[in-house]
Amino acid sequence: MQEYENVNAESAAVNVQGENGKPGKPWWKRRWFKITVSVVGVALLALLLAGEYVLHHLSPIVHKKVVEALSKHFHAPVQLDRLEISLLRGVEVDGGGLRIPYEGPVDPGVPGKPHTLIEVQSFHFRSSWSALLRPETHLDVIYLSGLTVDLPPGDEKKRAFGDRPGEDGGASGKDQGKPSAPAFVVDEVRCENVRLIIENSHPEKEPKEWDIDHLVMNHFSPDQAMEYEANLTNPIPKGEIHSTGHFGPWNVDDPRSTSLDGEYTFRNADMNTIKGIGGTLNSVGSFNGVLDHIVVDGETDTPNFSLDISDHPVPLHTKFHAFVDGTTGDTDLEPVDALLGRTHIVCRGTVVNLKGKGHDTWLDAVILNGRMEDVLELGMKSPKPMMVGSLNMKAKIHVPPGKVRVAEKLELNGTVDVQHVIFTNPMVQDKMDGLSMRAQGKMHEMATAASNGRPDVESHITSLFNLKSGKMSMENVVFEMPGAHIRMAGVYEMNGSVYDFKGMVRTDATASQMVTGWKSLMLKPVDPFLQKNGAGVQLPIEIMGVKSDMHFNLAFKHGEDSADQIQKDLEQKRAAGAINLHPKPKSADDKAKQKQKDVENYQKMKAQAAEDRAGKSGSLSTGASKQ
């Protein structure tokens, strides 16, 4: 060990002192080190000069490559304002101001208006030298921001640029239909703030615009369909849409014929963004087709659908099959199967987009064996529906465009048939039961039917109706129950709840049969004057009022007026001040007195019923003892 240390010490002394015993130079001052440093410096300088040369010449090369690839695909003079290249991590490219323009009219009668088919505010991608310089450019990911795609109407692009080579059937036509190699392929394109605009050549149509918050496209290539995933905000009703599917390949000559398919989810859409409607909508579905003819199948679920005229939430579920023109927003519904509460509604129709106005909706609706209470709960303010029954209805529905409440612009025209009608208020139903017994001449059963608190008879209602501008006109209104038949016409103004109905009431029993005792004897001579057309009694009546301020009158002069004539009479009464549009609400004392009066009448009817039952029992006992 001692010998090894001595040898190292001697070697170190020789290195410092030199072989001749003189002091040696440090390693950083020796010739070999200076030569090495010089070589490395020259190499670095050469690399810097080469990098500067490459960057100076590569940027125009890449710029030209991008412009040529896009121009070749879109057959349009592509413009690119900015392109910057960095070699710190491979080849990184940043650019902006990319535009694919064409010179063609956007609006009819405005020739030569400049137009941009595609515009990108900024983009970024990373690649390798070999990928950029190959005939088929291949990129992994491109990031785009501020992408706008503005599709021209109809065949504007052909008029602007002319037909593609070979489309005229000339010599170049021999290659027509043969797919050419794609100019570029991108594994993934990630876009932020995307706007799709589809122009329309019809003067009455607005351009269709879609704002997409986030869009990812996979396997992007001009000659094949690509996969996409998109998130966007729907403005009306406001909610978030998530969609995945396939798009393309891009049809250069007719962009509207570009294929697409996919599935979507529409979550937590706020129906309150539609004036006059409330609720939260969720929807799922699928679609396929081309941009100007998309077939959509889906379902919606709105557990709290409501109209502001009642503000009573009702569950609404729909299944629909629709054809959508993605270029105009027009939609054909064929059909919509809706479930309102437990009432099944089938609708067919169209939704048309009108320029500067909004959507114009036309529907044919059919209800078979529905529930009247479901419809009344949606449209009436009362805590519970005034009646229940089996509803059949056929109606044409028109919702014109306009920024007003749906209830104000809604138009309806059709027929309604309600069977097995029972009023939900027991006292009202008891009155109907009593009236039915009286109209049948069953006076001994009237008191019981009018006081037992349960339905003894069912009613049947039919009518023709027409709703427009908040006014409901009704013709041939028929209200039937055992013993009585009422036929009326009238109007109901929703704004103010003013109503006026006139018609005829017919009963099976005569006037003398609808009372007892001495009153019956007194009315027998009058029976022939009240009998008409086979009815025991036929009288003209009028029902009119404002809200709950209702009045029943005989209407000998106007018993058979039409709804139009009744509307004119109502306007004349309003002009003359004969209608109090703001009736004074009843005071608490008046309401208490009326309630007490109703209770007393009800108790009298119950007492009369008990007396009738006792009398009938006594008669039966006497008859049995005699036997």
Structure characterization notes:
The protein is of the alpha+beta class. It has 12 helices and 24 strands. The chain has a 24-stranded mixed β-sheet that branches. Helix 7 runs antiparallel to helix 8 and helix 8 packs across helix 12. The relative contact order is 0.04. The N terminus is likely disordered.
Short description:
The protein is of the alpha+beta class.
> Count the helices. How many?
12
- The portion of residues assigned to helices is 25-40%
Let me know the average pLDDT.
Answer: 79
Overall morphology: elongated
Write out key terms for the chains shown.
alpha+beta, 24 strands, single chain, elongated, disordered N terminus
Write the layout of secondary structure elements.
Layout: H1 2-17, H2 31-74, E1 79-86, E2 91-103, E3 114-127, H3 129-133, E4 137-151, H4 156-161, E5 184-198, E6 208-220, E7 226-234, E8 238-247, E9 259-270, E10 277-278, E11 280-290, E12 293-307, E13 314-324, E14 331-340, E15 343-354, E16 358-371, H5 372-379, E17 387-399, H6 406-409, E18 411-423, H7 426-440, H8 443-449, E19 459-468, E20 471-481, E21 484-493, E22 498-507, H9 518-523, H10 527-530, E23 537-546, E24 549-554, H11 563-575, H12 588-626
Helix pairs in contact: 7-8, 8-12
